[in-house]
Amino acid sequence: AQAIWTRASFMACQAHGMSFTLARWMLHKRPDEIAATGLRSHSDDGAAQIKGRSALQDEVVEVVDPAAGPTNGYVRVRLALSGAVGWIQQDYLHACPEGTADHGRLSSEARTGDRQVEKRELPSGASRFKEIEEFVQQGSGGQLRAKRVWFIRGHFLGETGMTSGPKETLFHGTNEYAIESIIQTGFDDEYSCDGKFGTGIYFSPEAMTSYAYGQEILLCEVALGKQDQRIIATKCCSDYGWESLLRKDKRSVQCGVADFGQEERIVYHCTQCKPVYQVQVEQVREREDEGEILPRWMLHRRTDGITNSSLRSEPQNSKDYCIAGSALNGEVVEVLQPRLSQNGFVRVKLALAEQVGWLNREYLHFCPEGTAGRGKTAAGSGSCSLTRTPLKPGSRRFNEVQELIKSSWCVPEGCSRLCGKEGRPPPPSNACMKAFDDTPKWEVDEVTFLEGQFLGQTGMVTGEKEVLFHGCKDDTIPLILENGFDLDYCSVGAFGRGNYFSPQACKAFSYSYDKSTGTPGRYLLVCEVALGSVQNRKVLCASDVSLDRQKVFIEEGFRSAAHHVEGGCFRHEERIIYWNTQCKPVYLVKMKGESPAIGI
Asked: Is residue 4 classed as helix, strand or coil in its secondary structure?
């Protein structure tokens, strides 16, 4: 209806000898419904078309100089995605509400009447598909490839950030449940996450950063405002919001790689952003003659309603080859060298009990584990969408968690877990055994599997990730599950400002006691931690509160620090990392007993 009205208005102006006024943003729409119009190098019918550059039907284009008006029936325009500039027929340009106040609350809503939102798939041979393919490749550093692309029409940006500033094309990653809602109605700040920079709508110029939030990718046009209207964040601030920015004459917030490990752009008003393309992507795979080379870390997920897959001793589908150990839906597994599928199966290793076996290739999917651009924490820069799956008592995985906790506990005959110096069991702590003497010790009440956080690249290139324990006050647990481990909220411990873990559950559980209130804790986190290779771990023999990321990671080149009971200054094993994306919670355990009122 909007396009019909504006076309009629334009023709009426011509009929009455009136000049047609160009706006900065106009809608390209041909009367013959041809899918695209090629840009021309000059303003005449005989001018050559600019190769590979064309405006799509229903695409909003920017008029380079509206005041200059048409020349020979042509108007000079700029395309948003590529920034290409060329001439297009005046008859194909129509007024539209882009950059105006003619909006409801969302980019799909008009103040009066309705707008028709529609998506249509672009042919893989079309020039715009190839542009998006190149845009995704460059934005991901060659790690992602566009498989299918849909153009989305019917959304228009509002006035905010568009009065004088440019709009930018950015990535937004989400899950399969949210993408259709965004396409149909637009981004809605009522459903925004309360992230590191407040309740806003988060985008990135880096495809891998967005891919970490969800494998459904949207290419969006975002009005960030002029450069001096953008806050450059160097630390987290959850107080940012639409009203607080407006009072400072700001329109957006952005953070960079130097301070947060990734680039992000955040806006706080629904009409500052609109989805323009839905892109189905896949990770680029290396290939050899004998087959596909898989990444080291992959996500196990079945789509047939079965919640786990048994490992097999051979790459065979028969249940006769089933062995102890199974992968849970949503679990990240390690693909073992040479990382090739054989007979439709892949040899993998599970993190918790370190079982090795074969899994069906169809159940393994690409994921951001061990990749760059994870963001500030393993949860990303905003809140993560964490899936919690309670494990049934007596189930195989429940029993494996119980056994790991038991094997790492201090008992008179010693901890049986080989986590001490040079791979020996650490000697038991008499103070620990005394502190837990009146409790059910290692007995577990509940175990919940956690899915949604992913480790970054740091410590994962050559080193193994290890399963370690983390203890904290019970009311801190929800913050870690939502936002990941965050050094900004860590106190300085005996080995400086870092995230502390232990391969001994008794040590970690003791820290769930809240000394400030005298409240015993009941919860323990079982985590996966990327410590780096053994030679990249700093061995600590004495307390040093000056240690931090700058000193350990940057100046000395280590990826983590380790304290051993033998030759150390404390009575338990400890591991410390100084970068947030090196650790993630995988199981939330509720113990039957309470933590003792003593630090061990």
From this structure: helix
Which residues on adjacent β-strands are paired with residue 291?
288
Cα–Cα dist 533/557, whole Å? 12
Which candidate, 119, 97, 221, 253, places its Cα nearest to that of 179?
Answer: 119
Structure tokens at 581: 């994306």
HSE on the CB side for 510, CA within 13 Å? 22
Instruction: Please give the structure tokens belonging to residue 101.
Output: 């106040």
Question: Per the omega criterion (within 30 degrees of 0), is the bond before 425 cis?
Answer: no
Sign of CA dihedral 73, 76, 78, 83: positive
- The predicted model scores a pTM of 0.62
What is the CB neighbour count within 10 angstroms for residue 35? 15
Kindly state the helix (H) or strand (E) to which residue 506 belongs, with its residue range: helix 505-510
Neighbours of 494 (CB within 10 A): 16
Q: Is the peptide bond before 338 cis (omega within 30 degrees of 0)?
A: yes
Helix, coil or strand: residue 112: coil
Closest listed residue to residue 294, CA positions, set 356, 236, 342: 342
d(CA 331, CA 316): 21
Local mean pLDDT, 10-residue blocks, the chain (600 residues): 36 43 92 90 86 92 93 94 93 93 85 82 93 92 90 93 85 85 90 79 90 84 93 87 91 84 88 95 64 86 93 94 94 92 94 95 90 73 74 96 94 84 88 77 92 87 87 93 89 93 94 88 96 90 93 88 92 93 96 77
Distance, in Å, from the CA atom of 225 to the CA atom of 273, rounded to the nearest integer, reads 12
Closest CA to 408 of 577, 573, 575: 573
- The span from the CA of 415 to the CA of 29, in Å, is 73
For the CA atoms of the chain, what is the radius of gyration?
28
